[in-house]
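Module 6 notes. Inverse folding takes a fixed backbone as the condition and produces residue identities as the prediction. Think of it as a translation problem where the source language is geometry and the target language is the twenty amino acids. Below is one complete input and output pair. Work through it position by position during the lab.
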Protein backbone atom coordinates (compact mmCIF):
# COMPACT_ATOMS: atom_id res chain seq x y z
CA UNK A 1 0.00 0.00 0.00
CA UNK A 2 1.34 3.44 -0.91
CA UNK A 3 1.85 5.60 2.18
CA UNK A 4 -0.09 8.86 2.30
CA UNK A 5 2.98 10.43 3.89
CA UNK A 6 6.54 9.25 3.44
CA UNK A 7 9.57 11.22 4.64
CA UNK A 8 13.27 10.51 4.67
CA UNK A 9 15.78 12.76 6.40
CA UNK A 10 13.55 15.83 6.36
CA UNK A 11 15.15 18.88 7.92
CA UNK A 12 13.86 22.39 8.34
CA UNK A 13 16.13 25.30 9.15
CA UNK A 14 14.57 28.69 9.82
CA UNK A 15 16.70 31.78 9.39
CA UNK A 16 15.66 34.97 11.17
CA UNK A 17 17.27 38.39 11.43
CA UNK A 18 19.96 39.67 9.07
CA UNK A 19 23.70 40.27 8.78
CA UNK A 20 25.69 39.40 11.90
CA UNK A 21 22.43 38.93 13.79
CA UNK A 22 21.18 36.09 11.63
CA UNK A 23 19.92 33.27 13.80
CA UNK A 24 19.39 29.74 12.53
CA UNK A 25 16.94 27.38 14.17
CA UNK A 26 17.01 23.74 13.18
CA UNK A 27 13.32 22.97 13.79
CA UNK A 28 13.50 19.53 12.16
CA UNK A 29 16.74 17.56 12.19
CA UNK A 30 16.18 14.50 9.99
CA UNK A 31 12.64 13.17 10.20
CA UNK A 32 11.84 9.69 8.89
CA UNK A 33 8.13 8.98 8.91
CA UNK A 34 5.50 6.87 7.14
CA UNK A 35 1.74 7.23 7.50
CA UNK A 36 -0.61 4.82 5.71
CA UNK A 37 -4.16 5.30 4.43
CA UNK A 38 -6.76 5.11 7.17
CA UNK A 39 -4.32 5.64 10.04
CA UNK A 40 -5.10 7.94 12.95
CA UNK A 41 -1.80 9.30 14.23
CA UNK A 42 -1.19 11.55 17.24
CA UNK A 43 1.88 13.75 17.01
CA UNK A 44 3.24 14.54 20.46
CA UNK A 45 6.36 16.08 21.97
CA UNK A 46 7.53 19.01 24.08
CA UNK A 47 6.91 22.63 23.09
CA UNK A 48 9.40 23.61 20.39
CA UNK A 49 10.11 20.02 19.33
CA UNK A 50 8.91 20.75 15.77
CA UNK A 51 5.33 19.45 15.70
CA UNK A 52 3.76 22.45 13.95
CA UNK A 53 6.71 22.71 11.58
CA UNK A 54 6.26 19.05 10.64
CA UNK A 55 2.51 19.53 10.15
CA UNK A 56 3.17 22.50 7.85
CA UNK A 57 5.52 20.40 5.74
CA UNK A 58 3.14 17.41 5.66
CA UNK A 59 0.36 19.77 4.50
CA UNK A 60 2.52 21.57 1.91
CA UNK A 61 2.25 24.91 3.69
CA UNK A 62 6.04 24.81 3.83
CA UNK A 63 8.83 22.80 2.19
CA UNK A 64 11.82 20.94 3.69
CA UNK A 65 15.28 22.51 3.73
CA UNK A 66 16.70 19.05 2.97
CA UNK A 67 15.39 15.51 2.67
CA UNK A 68 12.65 13.86 0.67
CA UNK A 69 8.90 13.94 1.05
CA UNK A 70 6.36 11.96 -0.95
CA UNK A 71 2.66 12.83 -0.55
CA UNK A 72 0.50 9.98 -1.80
CA UNK A 73 3.56 8.54 -3.56
CA UNK A 74 4.36 11.76 -5.44
CA UNK A 75 7.63 13.56 -4.72
CA UNK A 76 7.12 17.09 -3.47
CA UNK A 77 10.62 18.28 -4.34
CA UNK A 78 10.76 20.70 -7.24
CA UNK A 79 7.07 21.61 -7.32
CA UNK A 80 6.27 25.28 -7.89
CA UNK A 81 4.26 27.36 -5.39
CA UNK A 82 1.25 27.10 -7.68
CA UNK A 83 1.54 23.32 -7.94
CA UNK A 84 1.93 23.01 -4.18
CA UNK A 85 -1.14 25.20 -3.65
CA UNK A 86 -3.23 23.11 -6.02
CA UNK A 87 -2.25 19.79 -4.46
CA UNK A 88 -2.77 21.23 -0.96
CA UNK A 89 -6.22 22.44 -1.91
CA UNK A 90 -7.25 19.08 -3.34
CA UNK A 91 -5.62 16.63 -0.95
CA UNK A 92 -5.17 18.18 2.48
CA UNK A 93 -7.70 19.47 5.00
CA UNK A 94 -6.46 21.59 7.93
CA UNK A 95 -7.98 22.20 11.33
CA UNK A 96 -6.23 24.64 13.68
CA UNK A 97 -6.57 25.49 17.34
CA UNK A 98 -7.73 29.02 16.44
CA UNK A 99 -10.45 27.94 13.92
CA UNK A 100 -9.58 30.68 11.33
CA UNK A 101 -13.15 31.19 10.14
CA UNK A 102 -13.94 34.33 8.17
CA UNK A 103 -16.02 36.49 10.54
CA UNK A 104 -18.33 38.03 7.94
CA UNK A 105 -19.31 34.78 6.29
CA UNK A 106 -22.00 32.40 7.54
CA UNK A 107 -21.09 28.85 8.49
CA UNK A 108 -22.40 27.70 5.10
CA UNK A 109 -20.29 30.19 3.13
CA UNK A 110 -17.17 29.53 5.22
CA UNK A 111 -17.43 25.85 4.36
CA UNK A 112 -18.23 26.49 0.69
CA UNK A 113 -15.25 28.82 0.21
CA UNK A 114 -12.50 26.26 -0.57
CA UNK A 115 -14.65 24.87 -3.39
CA UNK A 116 -14.34 28.15 -5.32
CA UNK A 117 -10.94 26.94 -6.52
CA UNK A 118 -12.59 23.82 -7.95
CA UNK A 119 -14.54 25.87 -10.44
CA UNK A 120 -17.86 24.42 -9.26
CA UNK A 121 -21.07 26.40 -9.77
CA UNK A 122 -22.39 28.20 -6.66
CA UNK A 123 -25.43 25.93 -6.21
CA UNK A 124 -23.18 22.84 -6.18
CA UNK A 125 -20.74 24.48 -3.74
CA UNK A 126 -23.56 25.31 -1.34
CA UNK A 127 -25.05 21.84 -1.65
CA UNK A 128 -21.73 20.20 -0.72
CA UNK A 129 -21.13 22.69 2.10
CA UNK A 130 -24.57 21.96 3.54
CA UNK A 131 -23.90 18.22 3.45
CA UNK A 132 -20.52 18.73 5.18
CA UNK A 133 -22.14 20.81 7.94
CA UNK A 134 -24.87 18.19 8.38
CA UNK A 135 -22.16 15.54 8.70
CA UNK A 136 -20.67 17.38 11.69
CA UNK A 137 -24.10 17.90 13.28
CA UNK A 138 -24.55 21.57 12.35
CA UNK A 139 -27.38 21.31 9.84
CA UNK A 140 -29.36 23.75 12.00
CA UNK A 141 -26.64 26.45 12.08
CA UNK A 142 -26.05 27.05 8.37
CA UNK A 143 -26.78 30.77 8.44
CA UNK A 144 -25.04 31.59 11.70
CA UNK A 145 -21.98 33.83 11.70
CA UNK A 146 -18.90 32.56 13.58
CA UNK A 147 -19.63 35.09 16.38
CA UNK A 148 -23.03 33.41 16.83
CA UNK A 149 -21.51 29.97 17.45
CA UNK A 150 -19.91 28.32 20.49
CA UNK A 151 -16.23 27.36 20.42
CA UNK A 152 -17.05 23.70 19.79
CA UNK A 153 -19.46 24.67 17.00
CA UNK A 154 -16.82 26.92 15.39
CA UNK A 155 -14.40 24.02 15.41
CA UNK A 156 -17.05 21.79 13.82
CA UNK A 157 -17.48 24.39 11.06
CA UNK A 158 -13.69 24.33 10.58
CA UNK A 159 -13.78 20.53 10.35
CA UNK A 160 -16.61 20.69 7.80
CA UNK A 161 -14.54 23.17 5.79
CA UNK A 162 -11.59 20.76 5.90
CA UNK A 163 -13.77 17.84 4.83
CA UNK A 164 -15.78 19.50 2.07
CA UNK A 165 -12.99 18.87 -0.42
CA UNK A 166 -12.82 15.18 0.50
CA UNK A 167 -9.10 15.37 1.27
CA UNK A 168 -6.79 12.33 1.44
CA UNK A 169 -5.38 13.65 4.67
CA UNK A 170 -6.87 15.55 7.60
CA UNK A 171 -4.32 17.52 9.65
CA UNK A 172 -5.29 18.97 13.01
CA UNK A 173 -2.91 21.08 15.16
CA UNK A 174 -4.25 21.02 18.74
CA UNK A 175 -7.88 21.18 17.59
CA UNK A 176 -9.19 21.05 21.15
CA UNK A 177 -6.65 23.52 22.57
CA UNK A 178 -9.21 26.35 22.82
CA UNK A 179 -12.18 24.26 23.96
CA UNK A 180 -13.72 23.33 27.28
CA UNK A 181 -13.75 19.66 28.18
CA UNK A 182 -17.29 18.98 26.93
CA UNK A 183 -16.67 20.58 23.53
CA UNK A 184 -13.32 18.79 23.35
CA UNK A 185 -15.07 15.45 23.88
CA UNK A 186 -17.50 16.24 21.05
CA UNK A 187 -14.71 17.18 18.67
CA UNK A 188 -12.67 14.10 19.59
CA UNK A 189 -15.78 11.96 19.07
CA UNK A 190 -16.06 13.47 15.61
CA UNK A 191 -12.44 12.57 14.83
CA UNK A 192 -13.09 9.01 16.10
CA UNK A 193 -16.05 8.78 13.69
CA UNK A 194 -13.98 10.12 10.79
CA UNK A 195 -11.32 7.52 11.55
CA UNK A 196 -13.97 4.76 11.50
CA UNK A 197 -15.08 6.07 8.10
CA UNK A 198 -11.54 5.49 6.84
CA UNK A 199 -10.09 9.01 6.89
CA UNK A 200 -6.35 9.44 7.42
CA UNK A 201 -5.81 11.78 10.36
CA UNK A 202 -2.73 13.37 11.92
CA UNK A 203 -3.40 15.31 15.11
CA UNK A 204 -0.98 17.30 17.24
CA UNK A 205 -1.80 17.18 20.92
CA UNK A 206 -0.16 17.84 24.28
CA UNK A 207 -2.68 15.75 26.18
CA UNK A 208 -1.91 12.06 26.77
CA UNK A 209 -5.60 11.10 26.96
CA UNK A 210 -6.20 12.72 23.56
CA UNK A 211 -3.17 10.95 22.10
CA UNK A 212 -4.42 7.65 23.51
CA UNK A 213 -7.48 7.82 21.23
CA UNK A 214 -5.27 7.62 18.15
CA UNK A 215 -3.98 4.36 16.70
CA UNK A 216 -0.36 5.37 16.90
CA UNK A 217 1.64 8.02 18.70
CA UNK A 218 4.60 9.63 16.95
CA UNK A 219 6.86 11.38 19.46
CA UNK A 220 9.09 14.24 18.40
CA UNK A 221 12.08 15.34 20.42
CA UNK A 222 14.49 18.10 19.33
CA UNK A 223 13.27 17.92 15.75
CA UNK A 224 13.59 14.15 15.42
CA UNK A 225 11.16 11.27 15.66
CA UNK A 226 11.95 9.69 19.01
CA UNK A 227 9.32 6.98 18.72
CA UNK A 228 6.54 5.68 16.46
CA UNK A 229 7.78 6.82 13.02
CA UNK A 230 7.35 3.24 11.68
CA UNK A 231 9.61 3.67 8.67
N1 LIG B 1 8.72 30.81 11.24
C1 LIG B 1 9.71 30.51 12.09
N2 LIG B 1 10.87 31.22 12.07
C2 LIG B 1 11.88 30.93 12.93
N3 LIG B 1 11.83 29.93 13.84
C3 LIG B 1 10.70 29.20 13.91
C4 LIG B 1 9.59 29.46 13.04
N4 LIG B 1 8.60 28.58 13.35
C5 LIG B 1 9.08 27.80 14.34
N5 LIG B 1 10.34 28.17 14.68
C6 LIG B 1 11.20 27.53 15.70
O1 LIG B 1 11.27 26.14 15.37
C7 LIG B 1 11.17 25.33 16.53
C8 LIG B 1 10.00 24.36 16.39
O2 LIG B 1 8.78 25.12 16.43
P1 LIG B 1 7.35 24.45 16.28
O3 LIG B 1 6.37 25.55 16.18
O4 LIG B 1 7.37 23.46 15.16
O5 LIG B 1 7.23 23.67 17.67
P2 LIG B 1 5.98 22.88 18.30
O6 LIG B 1 6.47 21.51 18.62
O7 LIG B 1 4.80 23.01 17.42
O8 LIG B 1 5.76 23.67 19.67
P3 LIG B 1 4.38 23.97 20.47
O9 LIG B 1 4.05 22.71 21.20
O10 LIG B 1 4.81 25.06 21.44
O11 LIG B 1 3.35 24.42 19.51
C9 LIG B 1 11.06 26.28 17.71
O12 LIG B 1 12.34 26.41 18.30
C10 LIG B 1 10.61 27.58 17.09
O13 LIG B 1 11.10 28.69 17.82
MG1 LIG C 1 2.91 23.96 17.65
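Target side of the pair, the amino acids:
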Amino acid sequence: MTPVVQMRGVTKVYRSGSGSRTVEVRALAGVDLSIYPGEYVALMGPSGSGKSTLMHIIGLLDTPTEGEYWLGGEPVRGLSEAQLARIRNQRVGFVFQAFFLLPRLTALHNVALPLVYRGLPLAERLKRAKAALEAVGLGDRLDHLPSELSGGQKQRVAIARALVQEPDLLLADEPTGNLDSRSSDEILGLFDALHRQGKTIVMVTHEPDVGARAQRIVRLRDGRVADGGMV
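Reference fact for the lab report: The chain is about 30% helix and 25% strand.
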